[in-house]
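Section: Multi-chain targets

For targets with more than one molecule, the full set of components is provided together so that the structure can be written out for the assembly as a whole rather than chain by chain. Components appear in the order listed by the source. The example entry contains two components.
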Amino acid sequence: MDSGEIFFEHDRWGKNLAWSAALHAGFTLFVVIYAWIAGSGHGTNWGAGGGGSAMGVTLVANIPLPANPAETKSVLATESKGLSQSKPQEKTEEPDAVPIPEKNVKVKPKPPQPTATQRKPQPQPVEQAQNQIPYGEGGQVSNHYSMFSAAGATGGIAVSGGGGDFGSRYAWYVQAMTRKVSENWLKYEVDPRIQSANRVYITFDIDRTGRPSHIQVEQSSNVPSLDTSAVRALQRIDTFGPLPSDYAGNHVSVEYWFDYKR
Amino acid sequence: MNRVLEGNKLRIALMISTVLMMALPSAAQDWIKTGTGLGVERIRIAVPDFKASSQDPRNSDLLRMFNETLWNDLNNAGIFELVSKSFYPLGQVGAPADVKFESWSAPPPNSAMLVFGNLAASGNNVTVQGWLDDVKNTANPQVLAKQYTDVANNQQVRLIAHKFADEIIFRLGGGINGIAETQIYFVHGATGHKEIWGMDYDGANQHPITTLGTISLSPHISPDGSRLAFSSFNGSSWEIRMFSFDLNRLVSFPRFGGTNTSPSWSPDGTKLAFSSSRSGDSEIYIVDQSGGNLHRLTNSRGPDVSPSWNRKLGSELAWVSGRTGLPRIYTMGTDGTNVQEMIEQGYGVSPAWSPNGQFLVFSWMRHYGAGAPGSEDIYIMDVASKQWVQLTHDGGRNDFPSWSPDGRHIVFQSNRSGSLQIWTMLADGSNQKPLTTSGNNSEPDWSWK
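Its structure, encoded as tokens over all components, is:
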């Protein structure tokens, strides 16, 4: 009898298996039919817009290329002074404005004035680029080779007194020297938090072989990393090239300034 | 004291308009005041064709060669902006008396410098006179005056043009010698084997140096230019070979066993670094230039190859190591200490140290692996800060960069044109152009001077 029960169980299990197979087949059939019905409307326009969302593509990560050092300049290309010249306003003095001296005011002693040798050149704010002709000045079409201009600034060699005519005579050498220092100045050595700083003045000598020596900070910018980067720029340079052979002196002293602006 | 006061007044006045170059007189020296933050601009230079100063019929041919070479040399220098010839005033300039400064310094040429001169063939010889004038400095215009005499043929005239160009570049380029007389050595493969060839820096005068009938790779010229070290297959193994330009033949160099490749000279020319697998794994070794005193620097799993000496200090090596899997660039002292990983991703090979010791140039697949674009490009890295700049873009596979001695140019191999050729560019990635066009040319090495 026990064996009969076992047989009965086997029979019921087989029935379930049949149900299962039937349901699977039915479900598969349903999927196929649904796909056929639902997909029949798509046709060939699968690539057309709508329905999907475009994938956002981010182009290559930023490559930290150094910025182009050359500044865009706008120099007037004629010798004329421009069409519209503004004249300075004439000063009108008020004839009766005479200050009345107050009574019983103690005269304060003036603090001692610094002598000329004590006075240091104070750093000046860098002028912003101005692509306009200032009053009374025509745009210079071609600077002297010893001069340079950029970002509203103009530089040049001024000779005072006799004897020291190196700058005017060998302007090409000064220019080559300026370029070489600029090339060797790595701005990324400056503290990245600094946006702009005072001008730093460096002095050094160039001997006859063109080697810079006695490199010193004449006036600090108060930003140590800027001072260091300026000194390093000069330390990196082995030679500026021998001094011109017809130059009589045995060395040249140079004051070089660095303006930093991020 | 008065002078100092006057100088200071002037200085303040100048600073206000940011005019800050002046010269104060002092006992026996000159003071120059100058500054930066002004951008590095190229010098505008006018180079009118030289003038024939004799009636010899060969003049026109020689002049064509001379003018073309001089123009190209100055154009390639990377520091000049050559004024287009269509802007030049009429009339030939053959001597200082012919120069009208205003017509050159004013627009349209608006030139800062003028190169001019004359050429005359007579008998067997040719004489070239050349001047360089600062046309904006009418008081003292002359910067350079040179005269050259040599045999009257195209090759010598080309050499004279190179020499004159180098003199100009030396004067105006801040004391850095021009590269017009330098050589580039490379591997030329055309007929089943690979030989070492040489050529001028501009791709002219390509000629074979070795004729071994086997495969020779990785040529490296010694700093004095007298010897060429390379790696050659001798039928069973790769050995370092040495070619002497003084003797014009191969000279003996010891065999170390295993695979010995990529020799690199120390800047004083007394030592060679190379990679050898004599102990099983490829490791970096240093040996005297004669082949003696071999000692090993690296000792790690994975290959260590392609050493390159710091050309300024001589106490550092950059090389390629596979110690972490993919090949990467590392640096170390020449005693094997102070190992630093220079790139932390991708596949980087072929490091070469710049002449000033400041930069490494190398070939890098920055993104390497499945799905990566797989382009191999030339990069420059500032060694101190590890900042890098990509120099080649979208141009096939670029490899084996080598610096020119002036540090302004880089030569490399690229397959961008379809076949492997030697290319050159300025060190900022501009002015890329091929030097070779036929056969397969690879692994360039620029001479040290």
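Residues 14-28 of chain B have pLDDT under 50 and may be disordered.
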